[in-house]
Every structure is written in structure tokens, then in C-alpha cells.
Specification:
single chain; Alpha-Beta Plaits; 4 strands
Length: 154
């Protein structure tokens, strides 16, 4: 874990909440002047603590009405089979997250789709025939009670 002081943590919390804040405003919020604030942010970027900046989009307004979680079991857990599956998932834009698990299920995927018909097509033509897939169990989200990107910094 990076060696962060209180100012670094406040910088990260502010950027995590509002990635488009100006350096001048960010400096004001954490009690610095602009030049040292910018140096600290750049150092956090160079250390890889800040990996990037992203806009949060409203999926439904862009036509992606459903979110599905898929639990995938593989035929083999050999490292090359795991890597091949992960690489295939990276190439599917509908798959927004892919996490390897320990336990009965090998992977959990977060998938977005325009509608049930589109999801069914994705499931049968892209996910179930993916390399090394033994079984897929899916659950459609009904609603999201909490969506908090990032990590707790306080």
C-alpha cells in the first residue's frame, strides 16, 4: 500500500468524488496552494495510485436497460484456461466487470444489455460458447440500492 499522508488521502477523496475538479479548487479544498497540489496529484498518478479519470454514464439513458450478473464455472482451472477466458471477456464490450472468485463459481461478470432479447443473444452466441465454459447462471438486477465506485478513504 502506498505511503499516504492526510493531505494525499483528502486529495484522493476529492478526486474520487469529483474527477473534473480544477487544480485550483482541489488545492483550496485540501488547504494547499495550486503548485504543490499539482505536484502531489502527479506523484499519485506516477505511483499508480490514481489509475485514470472517467465519466460516470447513465446506462439507461444510453439504451442499456438491463444489468445482469453472470456466475461462470469453467471446465478447467489451469492457468492457461483462466487466462484464455479472461482475455475473451476483455474483448466483449457488454462485459463491464470480470472477477475471478474462489469457491464453487470461477468468475462473476457484470454485463449490460439493451434488453432481454439482446442479452439472450449475447448469452447464447458469446458467453456460453466462450473458451472453457462449463456452465453459466445469470441473475438480472431489479434495482441498485448502492453504487459507490472507488474505495473508502476515511
Amino acid at each position: 500500500m502506498a505511503n499516504l499522508d492526510d493531505i494525499d488521502r483528502r486529495l484522493l477523496a476529492e478526486l474520487q468524488n469529483e474527477g473534473r475538479v480544477t487544480n485550483v479548487e482541489l488545492a483550496h479544498r485540501v488547504g494547499l496552494t495550486a503548485p504543490p497540489c499539482l505536484r502531489r496529484v502527479r506523484a499519485l498518478e506516477e505511483e499508480g495510485v490514481i489509475k485514470g479519470y472517467h465519466a460516470e454514464l447513465d446506462a439507461s439513458k444510453l439504451g442499456f436497460a438491463i444489468t445482469v450478473f453472470a456466475m461462470v464455472s469453467l471446465k478447467s482451472q489451469a492457468e492457461n484456461a483462466l487466462r484464455e477466458f479472461e482475455e475473451h471477456m476483455r474483448g466483449l464490450p457488454e462485459v463491464r466487470e470480470c472477477h475471478m472468485l474462489n469457491g464453487e463459481i470461477d468468475f462473476i461478470l457484470k454485463i449490460v444489455s439493451r434488453d432481454l432479447q439482446s442479452f439472450q443473444e449475447f448469452l447464447t452466441s458469446k458467453l456460453t460458447p466462450a473458451p472453457n465454459v462449463a456452465s453459466v447462471k445469470t441473475s438480472l438486477t431489479i434495482r441498485t440500492a448502492k453504487h459507490e465506485p472507488g474505495v473508502p478513504l476515511e
